[in-house]
Design brief:
The complex is a heterodimer of chains A (138) and B (67). Chain A folds into 2 domains: 59 residues; 64 residues. Chain A is built from 5 helices and no strands. The longest helix of chain A is centred in the middle third of the chain and has 32 residues. Chain B is mostly helical. The longest helix of chain B has 11 residues. The two termini of chain B are 17 Å apart. Chain B is 58% helix and 6% strand. Chain B contains 5 helices and 2 strands, in the order E-H-H-H-H-H-E. The chains are: A mainly alpha (138), B mainly alpha (67).
């Protein structure tokens, strides 16, 4: 059951993404601009995750390659390297996002400020999810 | 911390890949351990010592710094 859900998840995300994007275009100006932006952003994120998930599930590996891949995923040194790299890149990108946020707040403001805030939240969520996932694999 | 992994492995005519298979890590990790670039976790140290039929202290050498 769990495996079935895992396999279906990228396809569900991909379909949901198109529904959200299409809904944004179909509803057009009948909904608020903020809601439209939120739907489109969410659709874009889901589309990315879904497409990557589908592409990864299509990659066929021999049993030996599969075993090696699984081992490299659980290998404690690899996990440590990934965590270190993730933490480092997360810090740098967070600083850059904050810089963008400040510039937008000072010079532009409004909807773009909201959009960058959403990106910052997603950025932090992505990091937390990955740290949790890698800790579980270790 | 130093270790005797390379010495013990060569004495037993075991390849790095075989040792990696035996302790369920990648060959790159064995290479890093042998060259001293990476220190094993307690769990991996235990696995490696068990693989060679020795204690952790016999495989991994903890050198205390003399003040």
């Amino acid at each position: 059951m769990k495996d079935c859900l895992k396999k279906a998840a990228p396809y569900v995300m991909f379909a949901a993404a198109w529904v959200l994007i299409l809904a944004t275009f179909l509803l057009g100006e009948r909904i608020k601009e903020q809601l439209s932006l939120l739907l489109f952003t969410l659709g874009g994120v889901l589309l990315g995750f879904g497409a990557v998930g589908i592409a990864l599930s299509r990659i066929r590996m021999s049993p030996e390659q599969q075993k090696e891949y699984e081992r490299s995923e659980h290998d404690e040194r690899n996990v440590a390297i990934r965590e270190k790299a993730a933490m480092s890149s997360w810090y740098w990108t967070l600083y850059m996002l904050w810089a963008v946020f400040m510039v937008i707040q000072i010079f532009v403001g409004g909807l773009w400020g909201v959009a960058v805030s959403v990106v910052i939240v997603l950025h932090c969520t992505f990091y937390m999810i990955n740290i949790h996932r890698w800790n579980k694999k270790m | 911390m130093t270790n005797r992994i390379a010495e013990l492995r060569k004495a037993r005519k075991i390849s790095q890949a075989e040792l990696a298979d035996g302790v369920d890590v990648t060959r790159q990790t064995i290479i890093s351990l042998e060259s001293g670039r990476y220190n094993a976790s307690l769990l991996l140290a235990h696995k490696i010592a068990k693989y060679f039929g020795m204690t952790i202290e016999e495989v991994f050498l903890f050198e205390e710094e003399i003040p």
